[in-house]
Design goal:
Elements: E1 2-5, E2 26-29, H1 34-57, H2 65-68, H3 75-86, H4 96-114, E3 120-129, E4 132-134, E5 144-149, E6 151-160, E7 170-176, H5 186-203, E8 213-219, H6 227-237, E9 250-258, E10 265-271, H7 275-283, H8 291-298, H9 307-313, E11 318-324, H10 345-361, E12 383-388, E13 392-397, H11 398-459, H12 472-507, H13 513-545, H14 551-568, H15 583-611, H16 626-642, H17 644-647, H18 656-675, E14 688-699, E15 705-716, H19 723-729, E16 734-736, E17 741-742, E18 747-748, E19 751-754, E20 769-776, E21 782-788, E22 794-800, E23 804-811, E24 814-817, E25 828-835, E26 842-849, E27 869-875, H20 880-888, E28 893-894, E29 905-911
Parallel strand pairs: 5-25, 7-8, 7-9, 9-11, 14-28, 14-29
Antiparallel strand pairs: 1-2, 3-6, 4-5, 6-8, 10-11, 12-13, 14-15, 15-19, 16-19, 17-18, 20-21, 21-26, 22-25, 22-27, 23-24, 23-26, 27-29
Length: 915
């Protein structure tokens, strides 16, 4: 530090004492060091990663049976169940492997029954579900009816022997045994089943002191549309439709799920009653759960559903929904396997659940009655919850949150109003210009990131080259986002400085131009910091208005920096000359926000990146850059939200050039690694989702029947073309958009196909039949159609709702889908059927035509008329040409399964309107 006279034009001042008219006025010169800024960025980066590691990667030590005794939870014992189930391979509904899995679970529960405490009743039931239909219409169920038959569940009830009243109130713990056809299901959900078996063993030694029973439901059919949970609720739980002795006793539901493999199993849905989450927070040893995940899931951003939705909407139950979410890229692929299940994962969930069950099952205050109405709505005072570093969980209710948020909002508005009133016209203009800097920051951050998102597909072999190495997004999108945020904010800062210089020149005519300019820069820095407060205040107001649970983050990011600023920086005197912001203000103000949000942010981004593997629900329907756009915008938003305060410190420092240089270098290195293929987009353990289907097509032009046309179809749920894969496979595949393939529930608009040897491996006797039995024409036209699915017990039927007003589906004499209002999506109502080996294969369909129907079923911009019915039947059989393709499929590819995707052999049929 040195001194100079007032008129000297050298280094910029960072501290200016009260001025006078004396020529001897001394200005202290001290520039904010670029090393301070560097240290702040290093501290933020290191602290953020440390929070994430402690919150999401820090798993407990797996314990053995000797360490926990009869009453504890042992991962070593649970992992034996996972090994046994995964060794069976994929076990979807209707497979022999699922029968073996059911028998294994049944034997394990019989062993638990034999070794239970002598004062505990353990009742076991192998429940066979009759045919049923899930008519839920919300979310993924819009325009669909899910029909099932011949499902088997293992149900275990544990209760105190000498307290019969305990059986009147039961806590349901549920998960599913079945997997998709493409995965052995170590994560989804053999890990859940294993935890439940070990929990049941421990609970059977404690239950003599319970005031409620605990029911463990090991269901099947979840992967085909939550059919297991639906059959239990409608055929066991409901006292109106069931004569089962356990009907209508469940008062709380706990669902265990997985959308990855291992890691911490966190709560991502709770309620609507807050009692369960409040008691979990008190009981859990390693509490993990974020209402942010619940907000994201319920927003529909993640196209999925769990059994918990059935328990909430159909049964009106409240409770908790847990999920493993590590390595989401392996979800429903071959890589959902035991070797990727991290040690400590089962111990974490098991210890939390055992402590929770022991607490709630011994409580006399278990909530009773339905938590939701028939529409799944609730007027409950819901809970807001989040964990701190995975060691402590905060829970408070929405009513209290609204009071707290309103108080902070009103106080903030009052402070801003007072400040602007005292500052006058100049303060209002300064606020407007600092808000402009925010807008420019967002525009530039998103713009820079979007530019990269559009460029990536042009320079990379895959439009999403970061899936196997998620850290690449830091350089590919994070660096441009930070550079853009700083650039936009700096432009706004320069505009603000220009205005403030004029203001100071009018107010302080005795100061030199250099000093006036320096004062303007210091004041502009403060206004940029306060603009960050305004940004979070606006978000808090919006979140409070829409009752968004994760609005607590906006509260923290507003209140903590505002407190630090008010304590160390603020003054209500407009006559006081500005000083530089203190570094300690930033440290105090951002410590709590980063502690509470940095781990969540990294986990959310990692989950989204993993989900990019299955982004294309209808392959070829979206542009290749769509996945990049979503991730780029998210990361840019995160940069603007979390760095708004830190970036305001850079403008009067010497860190501008180093910041630009470092971000450009980081981006350049990341882009070069992608372009040169140093880091592959997919690996054997993080595979691209690809489906190989032997298709036998009986549909002709305008829905007319034709001779069977067979081919091998190749398509991917992962963005990008399949040229590289086809080159390695060979087998005469041709790729493009020339032959879109309609699989009833979704269309493959881009795919590859080959007819090499496609005429073998199937038989004409396997082709389903659609036959019109009779057709009564007139004003109230009714058509009776018979459907024979032959060897298939998994099929999808589309009914043209432009022509058909209502319909009824029967299995012989049993009504499966009754007459009544049907929802539709894009002019179709879809029936998805799945069942066991004994499921029916012959159905009668009654169609009630719309009055004055005029053949409206014509595609826009096309002369192709849609059929009246379209049918896909699936067979879980690998034909010889399919086997050849699968053997040649690159190791970085994996079959992908979901309820709407075809199996490896699919037959397509249709019925034209003019039959």
């Amino acid at each position: 530090m040195r001194q100079r006279s007032k008129g000297s034009a050298q280094s910029k001042p960072s501290s200016i004492p009260e001025t006078s008219n004396s020529e001897d006025t001394v200005v202290l010169v001290a520039k904010r060091s670029k090393y301070v800024i560097l240290a702040l960025f290093v501290l933020v980066t290191y602290g953020t990663w440390s929070v994430y590691q402690h919150q999401f990667l820090n798993l407990p030590k797996p314990l053995g049976a000797e360490e926990v005794g009869k009453r504890g939870f042992s991962e070593h014992e649970a992992i034996k169940h996972v090994k046994a189930l995964t060794q069976l391979g994929p076990h979807p509904v209707g497979s022999d492997a699922l029968d073996h899995a059911l028998q294994y679970v049944l034997q394990a529960t019989e062993t638990i029954k034999e070794k239970a405490h002598w004062e505990v009743d353990v009742e076991l039931d192998l429940f066979h579900a009759k045919s049923g239909a899930n008519l839920m219409v919300g979310g993924l169920f819009k325009g669909k009816t899910l029909v099932y038959s011949d499902l088997n569940h293992v149900v275990l009830r544990i209760s105190p022997k000498y307290a019969p009243e305990a059986t009147e109130n039961a806590i349901l713990v549920s998960s599913h045994i079945d997997t998709v056809f493409s995965a052995e299901g170590a994560g989804d959900c053999s890990s859940c089943v294993a935890v439940m078996l070990e929990l049941a063993r421990g609970v059977s030694q404690w239950a003599h002191g319970f005031k409620s029973a605990v029911i463990f439901l090991f269901n099947t059919g979840e992967e085909e549309g939550l059919n297991g949970a639906h059959s239990f609720i409608t055929q066991v739980f409901s006292a109106l439709t069931s004569d089962h002795p356990w009907s209508d006793t469940v008062t709380m539901a706990i669902d265990l799920e997985a959308m990855g493999v291992g890691g911490k199993s966190g709560i991502f849905q709770a309620g609507p009653q807050p009692w369960a989450i409040e008691n979990f927070a008190l009981a859990a040893k390693y509490p993990s759960g974020q209402i942010v995940a619940q907000d994201v899931f319920k927003s529909g951003a993640i196209k999925s559903a769990t059994d918990f939705q059935v328990y909430q909407e159909l049964a009106g139950l409240s409770g908790l929904d847990f999920a493993y979410a590590d390595n989401t890229a392996v979800y429903h692929t071959k890589n959902d396997k035991l070797k990727l299940l991290k040690p400590g994962s089962l111990q974490h969930l098991g210890e939390n659940m055992l402590a929770f069950l022991l607490k709630v099952a011994t409580s006399a205050h278990l909530p009773k009655g339905k938590a939701t109405d028939s529409r799944g709505k609730s007027d409950q005072d819901t809970a807001i919850y989040f964990d701190i570093l995975g060691t402590y969980m905060v829970v408070f209710r929405q009513r209290f949150a609204r009071m707290l948020y309103n108080s902070v909002i009103l106080q903030s508005i009052l402070i801003w109003t007072t400040s602007l009133f005292m500052g006058g016209y100049s303060a209002m203009v300064s606020l407007a210009l600092s808000s402009l800097s925010l807008i420019l920051m967002w525009i530039c951050a998103i713009g820079f990131s979007l530019l990269v998102a559009f460029v990536l597909p042009l320079v990379s072999s895959s439009p999403i080259p970061f899936v196997s190495s998620p850290w690449l997004v830091v350089g590919l999108f994070g660096a441009p986002a930070v550079l853009g945020a700083f650039t936009g904010q700096h432009v706004g800062y320069l505009i603000l400085v220009k205005y403030l210089t004029k203001t100071f020149s009018r107010r302080n005519v005795n100061l030199s131009f250099v000093v006036q300019d320096d004062l303007a820069k210091l004041d502009a820095e403060r206004w940029l910091f306060k603009a960050g407060l305004m940004q979070w205040l606006v978000l808090l107001i919006m979140g409070n208005f829409y009752k968004i649970g994760s609005s607590y983050l906006a509260l923290v990011w507003l209140a903590s920096p505002a407190f630090a600023y008010g304590l160390l920086e603020a003054t209500l005197s407009p006559a006081r000359l500005p000083k530089p912001l203190k570094t300690v203000t930033l440290l105090i103000g951002l410590s709590v926000p980063f502690l509470l949000s940095s781990g969540i942010i990294i986990h959310l981004v990692a989950t989204l990146i993993g989900s990019a593997v299955r982004l294309e629900r209808s392959p070829g329907s979206n542009p290749e850059w769509l996945g990049n756009i979503i991730i780029a915008v998210l990361i840019a938003a995160i940069a603007c939200l979390t760095l708004v305060y830190l970036l305001s410190y850079i403008h009067i420092s010497g860190a501008k050039v180093p910041l630009i240089t470092v971000t450009c270098i980081l981006f350049g290195i990341s882009l070069a690694m992608v372009q040169l293929g140093v880091v592959p987009p997919f690996t054997e353990d993080t595979a691209r989702a690809v489906n190989v289907v032997h298709v036998v097509d009986m549909r002709g032009a305008n829905g007319k029947k034709q001779e069977p046309v067979s081919r091998i179809s190749l398509f991917s749920a992962t963005p990008g073309n399949l040229i590289k894969e086809v080159e390695q496979i060979g087998e005469g595949f041709v790729c493009g958009t020339d032959e879109p393939l309609d699989f009833v529930t979704f269309s493959v608009k881009y795919g590859c196909w080959s007819d090499k040897n496609a005429n073998i491996g199937w038989h004409e006797l396997d082709i389903p039949l659609i036959h019109v039995e009779n057709d009564t024409k007139g004003d109230n036209r009714v058509t009776h159609v018979s459907i024979d699915t032959k060897v298939s017990t998994r099929w999808t039927l589309g009914i043209n709702t432009d022509e058909i007003e209502d319909f009824q589906l029967k299995d012989g004499t049993e009504e499966l889908v009754p007459i009544g209002d049907k929802s539709n999506a894009d002019g179709w109502h879809i029936i998805q059927f799945s069942g066991g080996k004994k499921a029916p294969r012959k159905f009668s369909l009654t169609l009630f035509w719309a009055n004055n129907h005029t053949h409206k079923s014509q595609k826009k911009d096309s002369n192709i008329e849609q059929p009246l019915l379209k049918l896909r039947t699936d067979v879980d059989r690998i034909t010889s040409p399919t086997e050849t393709v699968l053997k040649k499929l690159p190791r970085w590819c994996s079959l992908f399964g979901k309820s709407t995707s075809p199996l490896t052999l699919a037959f397509l049929s249709s019925l034209s309107i003019d039959f």
